[in-house]
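Teaching note: in complex prediction, the entire set of molecules is handled at once rather than each chain in isolation. The prompt given to students was simply: 'Predict the structure of this complex.' The entities are:
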Amino acid sequence: MSALLSVAELTIVRGLARGKTQAEIGEELHLEQSTISKTIKGIEDRIGLAIATVNGRRLRLSAAGTELAAAAERVLAAFDELDVFARELKAGRAGSVRFITSSTPGSYVLPRIVAEFLRTRERVSVDMEIMPVSGLWRTFDNERFDFAIAPIMGLPPDLDAEYLYSDPVVFFTTPQARIAAQASVTVDELAGETLVGKFVDSHWRRIFRELEERGFQARRKVTIIPPEGVKAMVARGLGVGVLFESSIRTELEEGSLVRVPLAAPPLEEVFCVATSREEPLSPAAASLVQFVRSTLKHASAEYESRQLEL
Amino acid sequence: MLLSPVDLQILVRLRDGLTQAQIGNDLGIEQPAVSKSIRAAEARLGLPLVHTNRRRLALTSVGHELARAGTNVLMQLQSVDDIVASLRAGTSGHTRLIASSTPGTYLLPSLIAEFLQQHTEAYIDIEVVSMVNLWDAYVSGGYDIAFTPRVAFAGNVRVEPAYVDPVRFFTARSHRLAGRPGVSLADLRDEHLVGKFAEAYWGHVYFDLHQRGNTFAKTIELSTSEAVKRTVASGVGIGMLFASSLQAEIARGDLVALNVAEPSYDQTYFFVLPAVGAKPLAEVLRDFLKARWGPIKGL
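The expected output is the structure of the full assembly:
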């Protein structure tokens, strides 16, 4: 911090450079003219240089004063810019947001939403870290994230969570598969197929426990982590794939893969926004969460009405 | 202003992991003043800047953002001290120099280049004007330093002798007089004399030569030093210019200075600076030039 000149003193020097009289500067700073005059004298004594000379009724900056005024302009502009930035931060129009998310929302749900959010907020930056659920909460605890978007299952108790969206589990296969032609497929019939999915993640293990409780026993299970790998294997004719709907929506819409009409209560995973209880969300982070929530609500209603029409 | 320099100092130190007590120590304020300052800043901004993390005060995301932005602002503020220190020392800043044509063209540029290499934070503008206009330009143009022959100096200025530039007679290296150990003015009687005689100084020199009984076959009057040198280098007569304007050609051997002992003419140049409140950089530049030229003999 400058030990030599205060912000008020820099404002006086800038005022002189802008051709203002001492009275005008005093009015601006709510100070008496005599105080301005004393302040200028004080600056000169402190820095050991003459900064102004009398020129009629006005003070004219000396060469050293002109140099100082240029510095004052820069400093005061920086303070003004900081004020603007603070106001933008408060309005959620500036700032950086860092969040962590699990693979499916990170790869299939959020990218378009985040891109849309950023399109209208030039001064906001978003850092979205995608990682498997297995290490997600440990990373969230160790590093500095504004929030997490992940399956609600396995949420640490010390975090606050709010429902964000539900992603149905979809069993799918190729349009040519025998099972695809059936009007309805029982759990027993499904058990006869080779199942392809991400069976290592804890929430998938939980989903299969639910199926097993309904008497399902898979004949053969093939575990492959990335959803794109699951889709590629199924597209080659290897049995039935299991994924969240969000990650298979495009293929279902274009018809390259089709739903297996499973005659069983639907399975789904609830995804939430989790935050630390210690710190409130920044306006930019809160604004992003709100944007994600409203976009998903709108997209989900739109998708469901389209499915009904079909 | 939403955040004062002290607020920013506190935010930056919190970001760096200091406790409130350490911050108070650093800034020379009591610990309660630190938390009071934070609360007041939060109230002004309408945003939380800190929160308690594992029983320790930590910045919120917004606090981090402002600490990052505040670091730049504090650096700008710090730069004011640096500028004042440089202005005091005369090592930085901006100075404007005005000079007459011969020193402005031949004497000063290389020395000022050397000065600027040594003072990388300094900026110098050099204006070269004819002697006739120099003083008016100096008075009205807000220059920090003038480098000029003697003129009718007026106003509240300091005038200091700076440099003496001797007049040289010179010729082409193929000339019959080139290389002679000594030349008298009588030897030049049948020669064409080439110079800038329309200028007051050279007019006086020519008049003085004439008064002393020296005549020349012909005088060739040109308006620039470059024209004088080129004319003489092409084999026409004897030239007359200041030594500073001939250094390069004589060093290269394109022209040869004649050793004319009597009479000798020269021009004394002066530094002119404001009597009070001269810019430190201008003073440092003057000292640099004086050191390069050394003391002036006879002054």
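Point out the following to students. The interface with chain B takes residues 1-5, 7, 10, 47-50, 53, 62-64, 66-68, 71-72, 74-75, 78-79, 81-83, 85-87, 89-90, 94-97, 146, 278-285 of chain A (CB under 8 Å). DSSP finds eleven helices and eleven strands in chain A.
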